[in-house]
Specification:
The protein is built from five helices and three strands, in the order ααβαββαα. By secondary structure, it is mainly alpha-helical. The chain is rod-shaped. The model is unreliable at 1-8 (pLDDT under 50).
Amino acid sequence: MSSQQQQQQQPPTEQLKNLSVAEKEFYVCEVSGNDELNSGLSQDSPLKTPIQAFFLHENPKIYVRKALEGEDSEWKEISGAGLKKAKKGWEVVKKKQGKEEERKKKEAEDKDKKAEEELKRLEEAKSVKITRVQGVSPAEKVLQYLF
């Protein structure tokens, strides 16, 4: 089995581990691409969106194809505006992910803090001792509270 066939059988994340710095060309096809299953490293396994190329490599060279047939079926380097839009979209997604991670971390801290406070209250409740007052019947005590 050739190394290219082995590389295609590996999941995209495994293929990226094998990338050298010089290998940073990604192929994007809006029609036949798949961001979840394909690596984007070859024309046979393109990504669906250029944003995904930024998640896979910090400075990708992106080639796009708009259609499978006709004049837009050729692979062309992404335009400057398209690259800028993809990079901005990637930054927005990363920012949202960062906020989501912070929110989850805060929720976990709050949950731990509440659990700790509850444990402290339980310990305090265990230290409370109820004793019966000698000489006063329970019925008299109830009457004292009512009136």
